[in-house]
Every structure is written in structure tokens, then in C-alpha cells.
Amino acid sequence: PCPCGYRGDPRRDCHCSPIQVERYMSKISGPLLDRIDIHLEVPAVAYRDLRSARPGVSSAQVREMVVRARRIQAERFRNSKTRYNAEMSHRQVRTHCRMTEEAKTLLDAAMNDLGLSARAHDKVLRVARTIADLDAAETIDVAHLSEAVQYRMLDRKLWR
């Protein structure tokens, strides 16, 4: 994100200075960003890529994964007012977000290196739990956690 809107665009050059980008990004307060679960930059798609016959995951396959993940969550929260991972309290996060030792090490490193807040910590774990559910995994592993951490892009001030 930048004032001109072309930062990272493969077809157009961004002429914004680092100071302009920082000023632009500072309009979104840290506490507000902290309340957003997923921070994601979506690059422009080139026309040739739209026309590509490269097979990907079909909508039907994605739907199947989502339905399965929602069933897992329904079972997990069957005796609770909570319905989805995104609604988990801190206590529920501690109960339902079991991780491998490697994932715990990665989370510690991410918290320290990225300076994530306690709120961001729980958001990362909720997203990682959802990614693990999509993968039908009982335990959050390094792949699930690293993907969830990647969705906290704006915490890392990548615009510098």
C-alpha cells in the first residue's frame, strides 16, 4: 500500500518515497491493525495468467475443505456458545490450539522478532488453528503456524 497505489505492481512503477509510504501507512493505527485477523497484499494479476490453463485447486475442492473445517469446529465447540475459531476466547485458544514443539519455537521467535502484541498472538493462533482444520490436522504444526504468521504482514512494517 502506498499513496499512488502502484507499490509492487509489475506493470507500473511506484514513485512514492519511503517517507510517503510510511506516512500513508501510519494513517492506520496500530491498535486498529491489531484487531484485523489477516493482513494480506494481493498483487495485480496479469491477463496472461488469467488465461493460463494451469490447474489449481477447484472451487469444489475448496468448498469441501471449508465444509470439513466447519464440521471440525462445530464438533470442537459443541458444548459452547463459540461457533468458529475466530470467536475463541484466550482460554479457548490455550485449550484448542495445541502445537508441535517446532511450532512453539517458531511462535516464540515470531513474537520476539516481529514484536507482536498479545492480541496478535491469539489472532495468529486462531488463524493457524483454522489452517490446521482446513488440513484436517489435530495439532498445529510449523507449516500451519508459518502461514498464519505470514498473514500478519502489516505488523512487520514491510513498506520500509
Summarize the structure.
With 160 residues, the chain is mainly α. Helix content is 51%, strand content 0%.
Word description of this protein:
By secondary structure, the protein is mainly alpha-helical. The chain folds into two domains: 1-35, no CATH class; 56-156, Helicase, Ruva Protein, domain 3, CATH 1.10.8. It has eight helices and no strands. Helix 6 runs parallel beside helix 8 (142-150) and helix 7 packs across helix 8 (142-150). The longest helix has 18 residues, at 59-76. The N and C termini lie close together (11 Å).
What proportion of the residues is helical, as a percent range? Answer: 40-55%
Number of strands: 0
| SSE string | HHHHHHHH
C-alpha-based Rg, rounded? 18 Å
Mean pLDDT: 90
Topology:
Elements: H1 18-25, H2 30-34, H3 47-50, H4 59-76, H5 90-96, H6 101-114, H7 118-134, H8 142-150
Helix pairs in contact: 6-8, 7-8
Task: Provide keyphrases for this structure.
mainly alpha, 160 residues, 51% helix, Helicase, Ruva Protein, domain 3
